[in-house]
Design goal:
Blueprint lengths: L7 E4 L4 H13 L5 E5 L13 E3 L5 H10 L4 E4 L5 H6 L1 H22 L3 E3 L2 E2 L23 H20 L3 E2 L1 E3 L1 E3 L12 H12 L1 E4 L7 E5 H13 L11 E2 L3 E3 L1 H11 L4 E4 L4 H6 L8 H7 L7 H12 L2
Parallel strand pairs: 1-2, 1-4, 2-3, 4-5, 5-7, 6-8, 8-12, 9-11, 10-14
Antiparallel strand pairs: 11-13
Helix pairs in contact: 1-7, 2-4, 4-5, 6-8, 8-11
């Protein structure tokens, strides 16, 4: 059962992960426990479901005051600039992705917060990492500023755990697919766009080539994995950088074939752009055996079940 004294702050609550994570956490806790925050206007799906505050996580003092005012004990930090967007302004992406994390870790240390969650990504892996069943511990030489910032963030998380005993936990998300929120500027966004375009005009132009395999996950699995990790006993969390986590791997060609099972007239063409180079540097599949062994991770959705659920929900 959730601790009755917990007060949870979700930073970046209006983003792709933040909306669904906030809603799920609010289902699990009594009213007023989960505070949503973002720089943006409150997301329509969050309105009326619980407290919302405007927050610039880059301002450490404002964040610190918020933590004290609401007696926050847990923080989920989801604010970030993603891979493709980050390449357009690398120094800004580095600054936002790093400083936001350091602000949270510092306040967590100063106020002895119970738990911190911060997401990493398969973007930490680079061209020299093994492509198939990429292991938890391997060559990590990211080539995007997003990947570099996530790798540095992993080191900071482990450092604050070892040096200051900050209970910070993390997952290396694969590409995430959701019908509830719009794509956020990532290299795997084609796997969301393709569903919208299939329903709106029966055709999609993919910015990745037909056989680009990448690790993917349906959002319900990602949300469940995040909460299961955060609820696991601290003694079970053996990886304090970030856990590999997987569900399925597919290509644009694979997902197009699945959509055609439901809409036989659907067509796709391939017009790779700069995001193809980013995708080429990433793993094709992930070995997440440590997450499975340590805290019992198990995905529920494969490509068939996900496609069916996406199309069903987007048509309503």
């Amino acid at each position: 059962m959730p601790n009755r004294d917990e007060k949870i702050l979700v930073v970046g609550a209006c983003g792709q992960i933040g909306v669904e994570l906030t809603l799920q956490l609010r289902k699990m806790h009594r009213e007023g426990v989960v505070i949503a925050s973002d720089l943006r206007e409150e997301h329509p799906l969050l309105k009326g479901t619980g407290p919302y505050v405007s927050l610039d996580i880059m301002n450490k003092e404002t964040f610190h005051v918020l933590v004290l005012r609401y007696n926050i004990t847990q923080v989920y930090l989801l604010a970030a600039i993603l891979s493709a967007t980050g390449e357009k302004n690398p120094t800004l992406a580095w600054h936002i992705n790093m400083q936001s994390l350091l602000n949270v870790l510092e306040v967590a240390k100063e106020e002895n917060l119970a738990k911190i969650y911060w997401p990493s990504s398969i973007a930490v892996f680079g061209p020299d990492s093994p492509k198939h069943n990429t292991p938890q511990h391997t060559v990590i030489e990211p080539t995007t500023v997003y990947g570099i910032s996530k790798f540095a963030g992993e080191r900071w998380c482990e450092y604050y755990f070892n040096r200051y005993n900050v209970d910070v936990r993390s997952l290396r998300y694969p590409g995430l697919i959701s019908y509830k929120s719009q794509p956020g500027g990532g290299t795997t966004d084609y796997a969301i766009e393709i569903f919208h375009d299939a329903l709106s005009n029966g055709h999609y132009t993919s910015f990745l080539n037909e056989n680009t395999y990448l690790p993917m996950m349906y959002m319900p699995d990602a949300i469940r994995a995040t909460i299961e990790l955060m609820e696991a006993d601290a003694s079970k969390i053996k990886v304090r950088s970030s856990y590999n986590i997987g569900a399925m791997s597919f290509s644009p060609g694979d997902i197009a074939a699945e959509i055609k099972k439901h809409f036989p007239d659907f067509t796709i063409r391939y017009k790779p752009d700069s995001r193809q180079n980013i995708a080429n540097s990433w793993p094709r599949s992930i070995d997440d055996s440590e997450a499975k062994n340590d805290w019992g991770w198990k995905p529920e959705y494969d490509i068939e079940r996900m496609t069916e659920d996406m199309l069903k929900n987007l048509q309503h």
